[in-house]
Each structure stands twice: as C-alpha cells, then as structure tokens.
Amino acid sequence: MKFIDEFRNAELGQKLVAKIHQSSTKPVRLMEFCGGHTVSILKHGIRQLLPPTVEMLSGPGCPVCVTANDDLDKVIALARLPNAIITTFGDMMKVPGSYSSLQEAKAEGANIKIVYSIQDALNIAQDNPQKSVIFVGIGFETTAPTIAASIFEAEQRGIKNFHILSLLKLCPPVMRALLELGEVRLNGIVCPGHVSAIIGSYPYEFIPKEYNIACVISGFEPLDILFTIAMLIEQVEKGKTKVEIAYLRGVKPEGNTHALKLMDKVFEVGDANWRGIGVISKSGLKIRKEYQHFDTENVFPITTAPVREPKGCLCGEILRGVKTPLDCKLFRKTCIPEHPVGPCMVSSEGACAAYFHYGATYG
Ligand code: SF4
Questions:
Q1: How many of the other CB atoms lie within 10 Å of CB of 305?
Q2: For a substitution probing ligand 1, which of 64, 341, 348, 357 has the most ligand atoms within 8 Å of its CB?
Q3: Centroid of ligand 1 to alpha carbon of 329 (angstroms)
Q4: What pLDDT is stored for residue 5 in this prediction?
Q5: CA-to-CA distance for 313 and 62, rounded, in angstroms?
C-alpha cells in the first residue's frame, strides 16, 4: 500500500475487524502509548469495532500533557524576564501552570511567539540580536534530532542569542516506570510510530522479556491500528510475546541511525519530571556541556514558587492509564477546550480533548 486512502479502505478494515473478532478468545487490555494513536482510535471509532474482550487504554504519549507543572512554571517565569522572547508551539499557550499560563503571561506583556517549527525560532533570534530567544523544547525522541540540528545551524549562522529549554523526554524509560508502578495490568502495547522511526524496535525488547507484554509498533491510519491490534491479539492468544513492527513503511529495527547520532552529539540522558508520575531517572534529554551556551537552564537559572496542581483534574491518572476522561467530574462541565483545567484538554494529542471532540462515551 502506498497512499493514505489505502490505509482507510473499508473492505480491508472489515476483514481486519473480522480477524480480530475471530481470534480474540480471552480478555486483553492494550495500551496505546501515543496521543496520536488515541486521537486516531477515537476519531475513526475503532473502539466500537472491537469485540468486548479487547479493552483499549490511553497512555502518557502526549508531550504537552506530560510536561510537569514545575517545568511549565519555569517557562512562564522565563517569559517574564526582561529582554527575553519565548518561542513555543501553540499547544503550550493555554496549558494552565500553577498560577498562570503562557497565554495570560502574553496578555500581561510577556514577549511570547508561537512558532510552527524550530526554524522560525532561529529566524526570530537572528532578527532580534539584542534579545534572548528561548525555544521551549517539549517532545519525545521524534523531536530531539530537529532540536539538535538547530543547535548546529545556530552555530553555523553565528546566532548567539538562541537558547533551548530542553524538556525532552524518552519513551522506553516511562514505559518501564509505568509497568513498575503496577497500577494497570496490560497484555499489549501499541508502541509509538514516530518515536520508533527514530529509536527503532530494539529499545522495547525489555517489555516482552521482563514483563511478558506484547509490543507492536503502529502507524497512525485506521488500518495500521487495526492491523496492530490483530497482531497484538495473535501474540497474546499464542502466549508468545515479542516486539513486532506493523509500521514497516516508517520503522526499521535499528531506527534512524543518522538522527540518533545527531541526538547523541548534543544531548545526554538525564532525569525528567513527568506529570502524574514524577521524576523518572534517565528519562529525559539534557544539553551536553559542550553546548551549554545554548542551554537555557545554564544561561538563565530560574527558581519558581511551590507547584500547585489543578484541583479536581485527573490528568496524572489518565496519563498513567488508571482513569479515563469520563472519570473526571470536570470533563465537559467546567473543563472544555476553550477553558481547559488541565493539559489533556488543551493538547491536540490529549486524551480529554480527543474524548471531547470525538464524543467518546466509554473508557
Ligand atoms: Fe483534567 Fe479537564 Fe481532563 Fe478533567 S477533563 S482530567 S480537569 S484536563
């Protein structure tokens, strides 16, 4: 299959659904790690097509959602520094921090610019040599190579007023942390497609080996996801768990070695703070000392007031897969996309926003 339409072919979809119904004999609980998968599953009504034996849970794979309030408060404090320009993707603007949001800080006069790529941030830095331009680097392994490349480009272009706040996070360590917490019993994981295009399939090998959980790397079209679910069920039914790639057009077992080398030049592994989970050792990417003049944490050390979590918000539990948006008393009442209480209602990949837009009525 070469074109998007082919991955939405109804006839093929029906065949896959029939296969899933035929082969699924025992109850399975599958987690789609990635927010992009959550959106696709809800948008295309995939849950409704599955037999009652198959339960789908959403995981922590939404970069905006997993950004801890502590880190968000830092971004807002940085935005209030005189002479600073914060550059960020639009999703971050409305996320409520402990005391304010970037949107409120902008309304109060902070210089915050929404960018569509890190190139835009570099150009803003070049055009404003008297200002310190800070790029809010949220994301997973997918985003890290581009951010690494931007540092080399800044060096080449002689841009010295460009800084990165690296809030980048790594997927396999949070998967291990969730499994170690033991709050949710899982039989299979729909592993992220874009992240795996960078890291490959090997970093997930510990999951079947140590936890006996099936893993299949999936693309984002409806047929990709149905195919992945069929493969996961087959593994569970046969009692033989392993890591498989359903997204063969995007992922190689070894990943993208060029991108991995680029990342490794600029970043080293460090601890990261995850909303709802806390600090997970070696689950983030920090800028190496050689590039510390680009590192916002080095150039502008910031302390913030004690963190406050939004009252009544279950984002943390939703990101850990122990609750769904429907469990939240604020969902669709005081918390809606125009007035979000937590990040899962803001982000385009957030579970609450996906439930809201696609009218999901069961967890
Ligand atoms: Fe938080 Fe709103 Fe989602 Fe409830 S509905 S968990 S308040 S983001």
A1: 9
A2: 341
A3: 8
A4: 65
A5: 16
Nearest Cα neighbor of 329 from 354, 312, 345 is 312
**Residue 362's pLDDT is what?**
57
Ligand 1 centroid–CA 87 distance in Å is 26
Cα–Cα distance between 355 and 236 in angstroms, integer? 28
Q: Which two tokens stand for residue 229?
A: 């679910």
Quick one: tokens of 17?
């659904």
The protein residue with its alpha carbon nearest to ligand 1, atom 1, reads: 313
Residue to substitute in 332, 336, 345 for testing ligand 1 pocket (most ligand atoms within 8 angstroms of CB): 345
% of the chain at pLDDT higher than 70:
97
Reported confidence tier of residue 120, pLDDT bands at 50, 70, 90: very high
Dist. CA 174 → ligand 1 center (Å) = 21
Q: What is the pLDDT of residues 143-158, one digit of tens each?
A: 999 999 999 999 999 9
Q: Ligand 1 centre and the CA of 344: distance in Å?
A: 6
Question: How far apart are the CA of 31 and the centre of ligand 1, in A?
Answer: 19
Which residues approach ligand 1 with their CB closer than 6 A?
313-315, 318, 325, 328, 330-331, 335, 340-342, 344-345, 352
Going from the Cα of 209 to the center of ligand 1, the distance in angstroms, rounded, reads: 35
